[in-house]
Amino acid sequence: MSKPFILIVEDEPLNREVLIDTLQEHGYETTVSATGGEAWQKITEYHDRLDAILLDRLLPDMDALSLLVKLKADPSMTHVPVIMQTSLSSEDEVAAGLKAGAYYYLTKPFPPATLLSIVRSAVQDHRDYLDLQQSLRQARSILKHLNHAEFWFRTQSEARDLATLIAHAAPEPERVVLGLTELMLNAVEHGNLEITYAEKTELIAANRLDAEIESRLRLPKYAGRVARLTMERTPQGIQFVIRDEGKGFDWRPYIEMSPSRAFDTHGRGIAVSRLLSFDHLEFHGRGNQVLCRILSSSR
């Protein structure tokens, strides 16, 4: 597998060198720009290689948010994660960045460990997305004719494989697979295995999330639990329902992109699913059932 490739957009020479040295020392390949104009040239040149963009909020030639809006308007760059590094950490500033498409944040000054943790999470999210797209292209198109189906799954890999397969029932599988995957992984991790938000934060920081999931899957308390996915085609469109056997959670704080979580390494899945993958998304019961719809006339 190739080294992760990061574009660093930073006008301060010392900060730029620190970022380059830190990332290269830990196995990342980098390219740099000092201005927004140079950054757009690099984005155009390397659009098919970039795994993440580390973007300084204050640029000498343009507002970084203008560059971000332009970037996210390009279909080939929509899913490349942007990490905004900023000293402007007010809620309004963060909310503006989230609205423009910056779902990862670093507050200056930040220690190397924090930088590496956020970059690792962003790159992993992007590589997972690319893997999903490749799997989608390889799946059988016959699923476009599927009218009703019900499946169960227990593990992360089963959730990803099933999401990749069943997304082909939708007119735009590339759009749907991201949301299905996020919600089905939530059903495994936070639902059946009861990994809390705080626990996941600590596990990601320690690079132990996968090990903890494997450990809990073997525990008697969780070993018998399954999650279920139901798909139904109707005259109005397609409906997916995902259920888990956990104790539920308060889903309301996660339905929107929140400035309070913009600096976290995770916690974006539900909001991103609602924004990018589905026309309608709602939770039922105690939070362990989510209904998602794609409307026939939406695209």
Essential attributes:
single chain, 299 residues, alpha/beta, five-stranded parallel sheet, five-stranded antiparallel sheet, 44% helix, globular
Description:
This protein is of the alpha/beta class and 299 residues long. It has eleven helices and ten strands. It has helices at 13-25, 36-46, 64-72, 91-100, 112-138, 156-166, 173-192, 197-205, 209-218, 220-223, 269-277, and strands at residues 5-9, 29-33, 52-56, 82-86, 104-107, 148-153, 227-234, 237-243, 280-284, 289-295. The strands form two sheets. It has a five-stranded parallel beta sheet, sandwiched between helices. A five-stranded antiparallel beta sheet has the order 6-7-8-10-9. A hairpin with a 4-residue loop joins strand 9 and strand 10 (289-295). Helix 5 (112-138) packs across helix 7 (173-192) and helix 7 (173-192) runs antiparallel to helix 11 (269-277). It is globular.
- Helical content (DSSP H or I, runs of 4+): 40-55%
Q: Round the Cα radius of gyration to an integer and report it.
A: 20 Å
The share of residues in extended strands comes to 15-25%
Structural class by sheet pairing and helices: alpha/beta
